[in-house]
């Protein structure tokens, strides 16, 4: 089936003249399939966090845009991502989070794999009692590993396998947050939650990028970190977002705060930043904690937001953690009606993508321009391949 084409020229105009992405980019299944290839499979996308598999042998099955994957911390402590299927007949290997004792055993015919993905056992493959066969070369039939990288505890994956090395692809953001190149500790069970939102994943990115909506959508936050205290962050082709010059630390009933990240620098005493790392990871850094939101697209109009909070020490105050988690959960829930409302609005036939405030919306336009550029490059590559095949 040929991919439906949309006119992306107006999206790539200057912010003062541009229109937003056409409606089809939020509602059309064909465009969604095109975006999977252009925006998500070919980039370094967020999948999970390494804290999901804290100990050697821990395994967690996941699905990314329909592809069954399994996250494993192998016996040496390395976090790996594999296709969650047996190389024999494609059976799902791990159907629930669990500890792998010894080897990963396929429940169908008992082919077994090490936690590093090597095929180690093929019982009766050559007939009853014969566990080898010349045609079955175990060295060639290990689990299919997905290219992955860990940064800030996030497990980033590149399904196409041909993106630039992670440190090159994310060089700008890594350099920007060099002050935070420090150990981070997941807060644990009380520092994670999910939000299921009836919206296209891109609208969650767009909303996160800008501070324009603060006075009306987040009045509590805006009461001390006001719109005028915020600034734009833009790195075309990589990330965009916002920062604030007024960050207020959370305290418990005794006035105590979380320990700061060591040597993070006086710049961050009252400053904090919130960045969307394209395509689907939303990050926040503060002097005493950080968070990540991994956006999991579940189709054109459904997104699951996986939220994790991190601290400077391994065992931070439990009461403070719970209070901080509830604070951020309340803030992120305030955005739900906005992104769901925009999603419903994308079904208005006459909507042309909307306009941007040249002053207030430039981080969001930065994301739109990246989306349009990646899709146009993908289309050009597909057209070239077709011509070469003719």
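^ structure tokens above, recovered residues below v
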């Amino acid at each position: 089936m040929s991919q439906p084409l949309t006119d992306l020229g107006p999206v790539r105009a200057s912010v003062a003249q541009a229109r937003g992405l056409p409606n089809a980019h939020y509602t059309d299944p064909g465009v969604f399939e095109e975006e999977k290839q252009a925006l998500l499979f070919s980039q370094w996308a967020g999948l999970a966090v390494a804290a999901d598999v804290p100990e050697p042998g821990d395994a967690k099955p996941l699905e990314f845009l329909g592809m069954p994957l399994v996250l494993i911390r192998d016996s040496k402590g390395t976090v790996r991502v594999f296709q969650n299927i047996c190389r024999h007949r494609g059976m799902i290997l791990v159907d629930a989070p669990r500890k792998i004792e010894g080897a990963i055993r396929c429940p169908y015919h008992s082919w077994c794999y090490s936690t590093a993905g090597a095929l180690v056992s093929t019982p009766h493959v050559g007939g009853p009692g014969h566990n080898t066969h010349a045609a079955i070369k175990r060295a060639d039939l290990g689990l299919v590993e997905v290219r992955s990288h860990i940064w800030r505890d996030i497990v980033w994956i590149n399904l196409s396998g041909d993106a630039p090395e992670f440190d090159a692809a994310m060089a700008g953001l890594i350099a920007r947050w060099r002050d935070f190149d420090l150990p981070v500790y997941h807060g644990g069970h009380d520092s994670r939650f999910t939000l299921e939102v009836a919206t296209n994943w891109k609208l969650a990115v767009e909303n996160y990028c800008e501070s324009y909506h603060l006075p009306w959508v987040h009045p509590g936050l805006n009461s001390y970190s006001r719109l005028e205290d915020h600034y734009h962050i833009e790195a075309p082709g990589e990330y965009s977002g916002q920062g604030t010059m007024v960050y207020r630390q959370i305290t418990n009933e005794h006035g105590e705060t979380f320990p700061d990240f060591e040597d993070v620098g006086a710049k961050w005493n009252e400053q904090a930043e919130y960045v969307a790392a394209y395509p689907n990871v939303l990050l926040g850094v503060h002097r005493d904690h950080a968070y990540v939101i991994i956006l999991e697209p579940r189709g054109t109009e459904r997104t699951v937001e996986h939220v994790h909070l991190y601290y400077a020490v391994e065992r931070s105050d439990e009461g403070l953690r719970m209070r901080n988690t509830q604070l951020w959960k309340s803030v992120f829930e305030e955005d739900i009606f906005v992104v769901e409302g925009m999603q419903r609005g994308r079904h208005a036939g006459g909507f042309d993508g909307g306009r941007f405030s040249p002053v207030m919306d430039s981080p969001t336009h930065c994301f739109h321009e990246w989306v349009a550029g990646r899709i146009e490059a993908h289309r050009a590559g597909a057209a070239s391949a077709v011509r070469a095949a003719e």
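Residues 46-149 form a domain with the Rieske Iron-sulfur Protein fold (CATH 2.102.10.10).
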